[in-house]
Task: inverse folding
């Protein structure tokens, strides 16, 4: 069959498939970087037979460091943790009213959110299959509630499509599926698919396409009750004399494809973003706070590590008190578990072998920015019926996250007004905090005009300005992972590394926790195996 | 040529409609690149910053004596400094986590930092000079 006499040309079909493959290619890229790996918990860690008096010095009181400290202390090790910040958690962190944050460059922000409202500058969601982090929530009594990721009532938005107006995800999703289903059905009917399908299989596929795409009996995606029941009605059905629904009109197929908004709906199908997701009640920082309470005085805060030195019998760590004294102090233990981000560790003198040293220097850090915005009322709920979920846009703010808590509350509400990566984020890094907040308000108002009336205050965290990470998370290319990952994770003498950077789950707390458990298990084997002094 | 930088520089100036026009817009100056990207870490006066680690100051930094070293650092990255040259092996993920400057942009911004913040180097790089650096990768990132 030639292209010429086919309504849907072969070229068009290939273009369609090529277009949809964009998402698949992205998914493969993300998978290659470890975003979709399993994380199975095999029960409690076995650290029996701790040598008498054995000690471990842990650097960093984030998820990795505190998991290690908790398990090692419980097993009977003598444990001390050094932490740069004045609080536990690291990137597990929630900003609430009254909190202050001073970024690199010296700008200090005070969060002015109302009681009970917050933003999580770092991680904000817990996939149901991240069993280890959920295990510690249970163990530490951290209550969780659903995090709403997938919401058909949010928007997808392109500044260059549909006159720059946002489109409800529900409408776009339905129209994209319907458009593709109709095109495929045409191909099947004209035997144009060039696929090994019997005519019977073809009939079955047509049935499937009709159901999937809400096509009519002629396999057309048209304005109808069936399509409105997917994409929403112009006037929804009701009761009594005003009961009769009015159907909505699908978007033009050309715009559905050409708008490139298809790059967004598939995101909630990614393994890490599939329902069910959770969040701690009161903010992600509840986990770090609970670990911090549990570990109490084992954590030494305001400690800036300046040198890590091992010898045959142990490890000595030099650190400065970042508080008043500024004095240099030392801590020593048989073993050291270092969870300092590689962005910082690459600058700290440490006598390890070339393999680990090269691995530490091989991982650049991604840039990300989040902006929390408080509004005088929850207009996204009151005016737009958006309850949780994430609007996606090609504006520099990239995402608007709606809170999965406090529904119907009469008071103020807090949105995640920007969650930007890559180039957009670099630009946010270069702004002052006030400029970041103002930019998030200005851009967001293109999607929600209510911003102009309702904006109250905001707070911005650009991760490259974070004094304790100097970046968001470690970017592993396949080639770097191939060459350096095992060397990064292998114990060097008496020093082991852990953190999200030492995992196949970059940026996820689950990666940090599982890397810590893995390192602790191997350190324990060495300690028991006679390497102990 | 359309780059993420020019698009963003214009987007941040407040005129979203101009984002497409960026395709044909003039190249951003070295100063514009510094203000929109580099000062995020090296700070507005090139003074750098110190937290748990440091961002090196560009003001009075003797390493800037070598234009080659400076451009190579921007292109390939070094320690916690991200690379601004392409790293295609990251695939589509790349645009998500990093950003690119082309050779001409790297030359402009290197020339800018080497002639500001108390630096007075007069030798100037061209895009061609930066292109010549592509092959000699940073030893750390190989």
Result:
């Amino acid at each position: 069959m030639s292209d010429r006499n086919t309504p849907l040309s072969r070229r068009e079909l290939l273009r369609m498939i090529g277009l949809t493959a964009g998402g698949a290619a992205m998914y493969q890229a993300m998978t290659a970087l470890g975003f979709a790996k399993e994380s199975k918990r095999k029960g409690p860690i076995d650290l029996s037979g701790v040598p008498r008096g054995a000690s471990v010095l842990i650097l960093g009181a984030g998820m990795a460091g505190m998991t290690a400290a908790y398990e090692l202390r419980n097993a009977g090790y003598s444990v001390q943790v050094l932490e740069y910040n004045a609080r536990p958690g690291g990137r597990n962190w929630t900003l609430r009213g009254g909190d202050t944050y001073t970024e690199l460059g010296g700008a200090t922000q005070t969060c002015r959110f109302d009681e009970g409202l917050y933003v999580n500058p770092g991680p904000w969601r817990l996939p149901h299959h991240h069993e280890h982090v959920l295990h510690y929530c249970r163990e530490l009594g951290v209550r969780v509630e659903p995090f709403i990721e997938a919401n058909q009532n949010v928007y997808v938005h392109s500044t260059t499509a549909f006159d720059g107006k946002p489109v409800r995800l529900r409408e776009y999703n339905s129209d994209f599926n319907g458009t593709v289903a109709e095109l495929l059905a045409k191909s099947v009917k004209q035997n144009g698919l060039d696929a090994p399908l019997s005519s019977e299989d073809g009939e079955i596929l047509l049935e499937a396409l009709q159901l999937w795409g809400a096509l009519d009996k002629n396999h057309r995606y048209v304005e109808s009750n069936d399509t409105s029941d997917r994409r929403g009605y112009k006037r929804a059905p009701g009761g009594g004399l005003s009961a009769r629904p009015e159907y909505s009109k699908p978007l033009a197929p050309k715009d559905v494809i050409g708008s490139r908004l298809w790059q967004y709906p598939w995101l909630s199908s990614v393994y890490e973003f599939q329902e069910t997701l959770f969040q701690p009640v009161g903010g992600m920082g509840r986990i770090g706070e609970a670990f911090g309470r549990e570990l109490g005085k084992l954590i030494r805060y305001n400690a800036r590590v300046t040198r890590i030195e091992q010898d045959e019998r142990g490890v000595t760590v030099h650190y400065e008190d970042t508080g008043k004294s500024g004095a240099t102090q030392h801590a020593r233990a048989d073993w050291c578990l270092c969870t300092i981000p590689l962005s910082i560790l690459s600058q700290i003198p440490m006598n390890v072998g070339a393999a680990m040293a090269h691995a530490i220097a091989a991982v650049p850090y991604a840039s990300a920015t989040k902006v929390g915005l408080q509004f005088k009322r929850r207009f996204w709920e009151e005016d737009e019926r958006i309850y949780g979920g994430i609007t996606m846009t090609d504006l520099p703010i990239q995402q608007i996250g709606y809170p999965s808590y406090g529904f119907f509350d009469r008071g103020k509400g807090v949105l995640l007004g920007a969650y930007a990566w890559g180039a957009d984020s670099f630009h946010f890094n270069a702004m002052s905090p006030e400029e970041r907040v103002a930019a998030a308000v200005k851009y967001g108002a293109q999607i929600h005009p209510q911003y102009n009336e309702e904006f109250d205050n905001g707070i911005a965290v650009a991760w490259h300005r974070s004094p304790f990470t100097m970046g968001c998370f470690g970017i592993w290319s396949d080639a770097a992972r191939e060459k350096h990952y095992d060397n990064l994770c292998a114990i060097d003498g008496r020093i082991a590394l852990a953190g999200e950077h030492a995992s196949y789950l970059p940026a996820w707390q689950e990666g940090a926790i599982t890397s810590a458990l893995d390192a602790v298990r191997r350190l324990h084997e060495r300690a028991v195996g006679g390497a102990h002094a | 040529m359309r780059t993420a930088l020019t698009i963003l520089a214009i987007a941040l100036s407040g005129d979203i409609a101009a984002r497409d026009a960026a395709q044909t817009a003039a190249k951003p100056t070295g100063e514009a690149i510094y203000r929109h990207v580099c000062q995020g870490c090296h700070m507005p006066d090139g003074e750098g910053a110190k937290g748990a680690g440091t961002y090196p100051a560009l003001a009075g930094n003797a390493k800037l004596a070598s234009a080659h070293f400076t451009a190579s650092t921007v292109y390939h990255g070094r320690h916690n400094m991200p690379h601004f040259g392409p790293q295609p092996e990251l695939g589509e993920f790349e645009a998500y986590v990093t950003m690119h400057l082309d050779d001409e942009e790297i030359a402009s911004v290197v020339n800018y930092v080497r002639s500001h913040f108390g630096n007075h180097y007069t030798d100037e790089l061209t895009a061609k000079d930066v292109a010549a650096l592509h092959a000699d990768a940073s030893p750390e990132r190989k």
Q: What stands out?
A: Helices of chain B lie at 4-12, 18-21, 30-42, 67-76, 94-97, 103-113, 127-131. Chain B touches chain A through 46 residues (CB under 8 Å).
